[in-house]
Amino acid sequence: MSISSNLNQLKSTLSEEVTLVAVSKTKPISDLQEAYDAGQRVFGENKIQEMTTKWEALPKDIEWHMIGHIQTNKVKYMAPYVNLIHAVDSLKLLKEINRQAAKNDRVINCLLQLKIAEEDSKFGLAKDDLISLIESTEFSEFKNIKVVGLMGMASFTDDQDQVKEEFSKLKSLFDQLKSKITSNLKLKTLSMGMSGDYPLAIECGSTMIRVGSAIFGARNYK
Ligand SMILES: *Cc1c(COP(=O)(O)O)cnc(C)c1O
Q: In this structure, is residue 8 part of a structural domain?
């Protein structure tokens, strides 16, 4: 199957309310160009340097999403152009995003990552910490960031009940916080679901799925 047929096939199953982020990490620019030519405009990467190289090479109407864990000292490289940062998991990181966004005279949209998986290796905030973060005075004073949703990654397991429970936990926090609207907080995006679990994620209320291998094929990490 080609990238364009994978994309068209996948998109034909999605309702208009669900945004597809094509996760192109490790893939060559020619693969992204093929997806672009098939109409895809939203791409997700997990390394800032790699995303910046691709941003420089590809058409400027692409929306670039940073979906990976972020090192604070690299925020400046994507601050001029990034459209959405998915995996924000600390006040310290938000502070740096706010600072770099201000330098570029823009507002950067962010999602807060909730830790929903049982595995220790997965990043994210605990529920109580996420709530204290958005209720903090420091947060309310950030003028150049907007938190527009939540993100989560389920456990890597065949146990569908467990995955469903983890997605539902995220959806319920999303619903709980949706009415909490301030100058830099308004939740509308719920980013959950990857190649292996996106149908279940959508069933659980996802509005944004991050799909890589089902579009571009398996990744080859050298
Ligand atoms: C790599 C990655 C994906 C996509 O994974 P696939 O299983 O290839 O669809 C989604 N989200 C995050 C955060 C990732 O790092």
A: yes
Which two three-digit tokens encode residue 83? 């459209």
Give me the number of domains the chain comprises: 1
pLDDT, tens digit (0-9, with 9 covering 90-100), for 178-206? 999 999 999 999 999 999 999 999 999 99
Ligand 1 probe mutation, 6, 67, 206, 209, most atoms within 8 A of CB: 67
Q: List the Cα angle 178/180/186 in 5-degree steps.
A: 65
Q: What is the pLDDT of residues 213-222, one digit of tens each?
A: 999 998 876 5
| Phi–psi pair at 32, nearest 5 degrees | -65, -40
CB neighbour burial string for 22-57, b if at least 16 within 10 angstroms, e if fewer: bbbbbbeeebbebbbebebebbbbbbbeebbebbee
Find the domain containing 37 and state its range. Answer: 3-215
* C-alpha 140 – ligand 1 centre gap (Å): 31
Q: Is 121 exposed, middle or buried (0-12, 13-18, 19+ CB in 10 A)?
A: exposed
Q: Which of 10, 20, 23 to mutate to test the pocket of ligand 1 (most atoms within 8 A of CB)?
A: 23
CATH number for position 178: 3.20.20.10
Name the helix (H) or strand (E) containing 22.
strand 19-23
